[in-house]
Design goal:
alpha/beta, ten-stranded parallel sheet, 12 helices, 12 strands, disordered C terminus, binds S-adenosylmethionine, binds 6-(5-methyl-2-OXO-imidazolidin-4-yl)-hexanoic acid, binds iron/sulfur cluster
């Protein structure tokens, strides 16, 4: 492919080959970041980052076997099994998240799929959080068509369900549900008209080709996910991946940049793993086109940077938390004046 042509006129493609992904991923670093930032500026304000706050509404003792996950009942990670959190407690957490500036509230449950009397309570949580003026996201495991429709009817904006890794590496990590199951759930979410949030984890001992494969699968879905979380493994004691070798952070930045280029309209989230990342690596991720983070001191069960630290980082970088609702307003392409363009793409610090 001619990357320069693509960058000047990025189109939504669903036919990426592994060889093309590899070629982009391994460009000289400065070229890769330049192309990623150029694509980013066509569709997004480069100085705004969307902020989501996570809450684990049902923690631990999950029946699934996912090698990275501290919540799997198959491993002893010291987490105690909890029941579904009460509606009032969820809403009080959501209010706090709104006060601290988050625009989306993401609720996660350690389930294979939602069942029984808990599901109607989750529907009430969605309605309550939405009534506070926050965007809503849930991640509850596998969904059938009917469950997806009920979530849509409750007003859900996003459903998070990650592909996690490549088709090839998947069986080494997850044994209790298939890649096909995941694609089917995502299809049900899409068919119900809910925005898709889907990405994966790197640093799980996978090959570079698995990182390319994950990006290829994400981009070749029938529609690009509106939100793409890229997680760096949080290695938790007691899980099979506790001692896996740490991934080079430059490789993580390359992953973000390649996602930005291949998924030009999607929000790319610099997700788990920020707690162990320097401000400088995070800054490189934003340069590479990451425009969303989890904001708040906890992810689901592990630590995330303190809010003060994130506010300070945003200030150092001149980044503002995105205020508008992306659900109501699609990103506006920033068509740039000829005079400001270098080789067809603008690379100045001007905000859109
Ligand atoms: N149980 C539901 C499911 O798996 O679909 C929802 C919750 S699950 C914790 C959501 C996602 O969190 C996983 O798909 C995985 O990508 C991510 N995740 C879990 N543990 C992680 C870890 N230790 N490091 C990075 N990401 C992790
Ligand atoms: C996603 O891609 N990352 C978030 C969210 N979606 C649900 C979860 C990260 C979990 C990290 C480990 C933990 O805190 O338990
Ligand atoms: Fe359960 Fe989700 Fe963790 Fe897998 S990733 S063990 S399904 S909570």
């Amino acid at each position: 492919m001619n990357i320069e042509q693509y960058v000047q006129q990025p189109v939504i493609r669903h036919d990426w080959s592994l060889a093309e992904v590899k070629e982009i991923f391994n460009l000289p670093f400065n070229d890769l970041i330049f192309y990623a930032q150029s694509v980013h500026r066509r569709f997004f304000n480069p100085n705004e980052v969307q902020t989501s706050t996570l809450l684990s509404i049902k923690t631990g003792a999950c029946p699934e076997d996912c090698a990275y996950c501290p919540q799997s009942g198959h491993y002893n990670t010291g987490l105690s099994k909890e029941q579904l959190m009460a509606l009032e407690e969820v809403l009080s957490n959501a209010k706090k998240a709104k006060e601290t500036g988050a625009t989306r509230f993401c609720m996660g449950a350690a389930w294979r799929s939602p069942r029984g009397k808990d599901f109607p309570v989750v529907l009430e949580m969605i309605k309550g959080v939405k009534a506070l003026g926050l965007e809503t996201c849930v991640t509850l495991g596998m969904l059938d068509e009917d469950q997806a429709q009920q979530l849509k009817d409750a007003g859900l904006d996003y459903y998070n369900h990650n592909l996690d890794t490549s088709q090839e590496y998947y069986d080494k990590i997850i044994t209790t549900r298939s890649y096909r199951d995941r694609l089917d759930t995502l299809q049900n979410v899409r068919d119900a008209g809910i925005n898709v949030c889907s990405g994966g984890i790197i640093g799980m001992g996978e090959q570079a080709s698995d990182r390319y494969g994950l990006l290829m699968e994400l981009a070749n879905m029938p529609e690009h996910p509106q939100s793409v979380p890229i997680n760096m493994l949080v290695a938790v004691a007691g899980t099979p991946l506790a001692d896996v070798e740490k991934l080079d952070e430059i490789e993580f930045v390359r992953m973000i940049a390649t996602a930005r280029i291949m998924l030009p309209h999607s929000y790319v989230r610099l997700s788990a793993g920020r707690e162990d990342m320097s401000d400088e690596t995070q800054a490189l991720c934003f340069m590479a086109g990451a425009n969303s983070i989890f904001y708040g001191e906890k992810l689901l069960t592990t630590a995330n940077p303190q809010q003060n630290d994130d506010v300070a980082l945003f200030e150092r970088l001149g980044i503002r938390p995105e205020q508008r609702s992306e659900v109501e307003q699609e990103p506006v392409p920033s068509v740039l004046p000829e005079s400001d363009q270098i080789g067809g793409v603008r690379f100045t610090n001007a905000a859109v």
